[in-house]
Prior knowledge:
By secondary structure, this protein is of the alpha+beta class. It is built from 14 helices and 19 strands. The protein is globular. Residues 1-10 and 465-487 have low confidence and may be disordered.
Amino acid sequence: MDQEGAMAQEDPMDEMRVLSATAILGYGFPDESFEAGLARGPHVIAADAGSSDPGPYYLGAGESFTDRMAVKRDLERMIAAGRRLGIPVVIGSAGGAGAAPHLTWLRDIVEEIATERALRLRVAVIPADIDHDTVLRALQAGRISAVPHGPELTAEDVRASVHLVAQMGTAPLVAALRNGADVVLAGRAYDPAVFAALPLLHGFDEGLALHMSKILECAAIAALPGSGSDCMLGTLRRDHFVLEPLNPARRCTPTSVAAHTLYEKSDPSRLPGPGGYLDLSDCVFTPEDDGRSVRVSGSRHVAQPFAVKLEGARLRGYRTVSVAGARDPLFIREVDAIVQGVRERVADNFPDIPADSYDLLVRVYGADGCMGTLEPSPQAAGHEVGIVIEAVADSQDLADTLCGFARSTMLHFGYPGRLSTAGNLAFPYSPSDFHAGAVYEWSVYHLMETDDPLALFPITYLDHIDHIDHPDQPGYADHPARTGDLS
């Protein structure tokens, strides 16, 4: 057993049920599915609240990519259910990107829920922010490495980062649950960690717990038909686990579960994470007799020196965007030459602006708008194309200038066979140009070795609500993390 598994307490229980409410907190879930999950007697309710998939903006800006009202709706139902059943609720990657402003944002929502519902909660808050000096010392000591195909990290990259977080593993979450937290709010976290923490606390196999949790993190996406806004139940036993969708309209199959095991992974048998990797080379997926559930066995965790993934974002500039469409077949035929001509006209008109100080991007949807240079068939084949003109520069004013000039140039650009001189583009909006505001880019996306999976992630406990005089909620004194009795 590795560093995190070694913390598990002795426990004779043979089964643990983990309720995944939704793929990302704020994506929602049907009441009927959630109640069906509660009826199965789960030992913990968990949800991942974030991802790096939406890009670096949310980390850099300190904003959530999920809506506050939607997050509160999900979280209120989860916390109320947790108090009703006397079980913990665990949330990871708070506020989307998991930095200090995101964690504060989510903590405020929990405090609001506790006040409105007169709930007495012990809340564990686990920040994931890493100070720049810690990273710089690790960089100097040779303890930071690039992710596959990524660039080497520089001190300049670190210093330029507006927010810098480390992706915690299960250890801080296990510690918070051991200390009786009713609600755990974690900053940036390894996605499966929130689901695996309680099973590891009670001594379940790390390979099975992490594999089950890797699938549960996306809730019912592993079912048919898949959905990120529906519930899934994972039942972990000593030598296997079972995945079951809680909506009768969905079912899991060996293919759907095995396929989701490979989701976002480049190696079918080795799934890396903090402190090691999952070896799935001997994994077996078997349909259960009910025709809706799948049993999984053979997952194995292989320990390695512990490392956390670092994520940092820096300000790149400011963006202005113009959206247009075109359906003249001659324009579409000449669109590559037109785009190149527009670029040259912008550079010619603003010779005093260095070319490397701004980005002028033109995406042609219907040709290569999604994949850009990776598109295998870049020629537009339809009767119309959508065009997005984007300028990124050091100031919003300069971005406005460049985008506006590029848009007006393309609107009246001449090309062979052109019949109408009134304009080449159709604009769905007035004004045609939009301020998109600050633009952030990844500055740090690297691995940092650490000797202690807990040291980087201090835990604060908040007891709510001191100013309301009422008895503890039913089941509070019998919290499973306090008693160790989850049978």
